[in-house]
Input
Amino acid sequence: MIAVFFGGRSCEHDISIITGLQAMSACTRKSVGVYIDENGAWWAAPAKNFESVNAVKNMKFDGKRVHIRPSERALYVKNKRLCDIDVAVLCMHGMFGEDGTLQGLLEMCGIPYTGSGVEASAIGMNKLRSKAVFERDGLNVLPYTPVLRSQYTADAAVVIKRVNELGYPVIVKPCNLGSSIGISMANDNTELFTALRIAFEWDDTVIVEKALTDFIEVNCAVLGDRDEGRFAVSDTEQPVGWKEFLTFTDKYAGDVKSTKHKIPAEIGAEKNEIIQELAERAFRAVGCSGVARIDFMVKGDDIYVNEINTIPGSLANGLFKSSIEFSRLIERMIDIALRRKQRLDALKRTYAPPVPIVGK
Output
């Protein structure tokens, strides 16, 4: 049985529902949905079409509260075994789903899962850590400075000085958040105070980054596994309609039919090829598995890696449409998850020191 996990305790809850329902619809294997509500409760969700996100959130799911148990590859209702889980297809976005926490729980239970492992998931969610990884691999990132809440509270003047050295305008971002939530632009110190206050509502660590103007955002996805060394790179995509940066509404809240994307991005064949190469490098550097989407900013001849999404919206299906059907994309992610589990199971987990030979 395939268990599709979606929802979760994050501000990207509704987006995760959409991704989960899309994946359940496209999955060709027998599956069950595991909907995690906004309070963290798990529910068995029937594999059927829903009219809206609210329809999912308001369903009682026949009262089937479910859970998993350490060391067991199964889904339980109270003390009754509901079904065995062959693979968990993860459609979780944001904290407590995309950040390595759910991945760690599934590792403890011995359940194979799609997407990146614990370490890569944690790195991908943390913008500060991922930037450090990109820089170490020689990828370009915009100048930035991290700001801890404790630092800002202790001496705001030191923080303001560091930001002034970057030069305005700047983008202020929560370190562990996606979908443009909590992000603001600041053009002077007054706006910076406001932007920091907003960002600290979402995270104790904030990144202040030099803002580009008149740039083009380009996204590219990668399917594969770093340890296997086989990758499929998607088309590039250019979202249209941003001003300083793409807002949550730009990305998700508009009319789906009128959402504007240019595939491939209108930046020329040469730059598109470069971005596809850089996307694979970023995927390798973080140590990703399954599908990840890498977001870039292009200004003239300069290409910067912005961030990596280890569980992208709709599992980056739109970027692979020209080469891989959605059902096949999910199937390949499942195959990667199973092979990774086989490799991990083959590793030694216990160690017995050699017994000394008496008399020698």
The first strand starts at residue 2 and ends at 7.
